[in-house]
Specification:
The protein is mainly beta. The protein contains one helix and two strands.
Length: 48
């Protein structure tokens, strides 16, 4: 898995918002504060 470097750009991914339907991640970063919550599988060796 590649490491993050300073200056890397977050990809434009489609997401489902809790109260706002569907959006693209680049649209979310126009707000002053954004929380990204990702669910993961506990047994995943990459996530540990």
């Amino acid at each position: 898995m590649a490491k993050l470097n300073q200056g890397d750009v977050f990809p434009a991914l489609p997401v489902n918002l809790l109260y706002g339907g569907e959006a693209v991640t680049t649209d979310l970063f126009t707000e002053p504060k954004t929380v990204i919550w990702a669910l993961r599988y506990i047994g995943c060796t990459v996530c540990r």
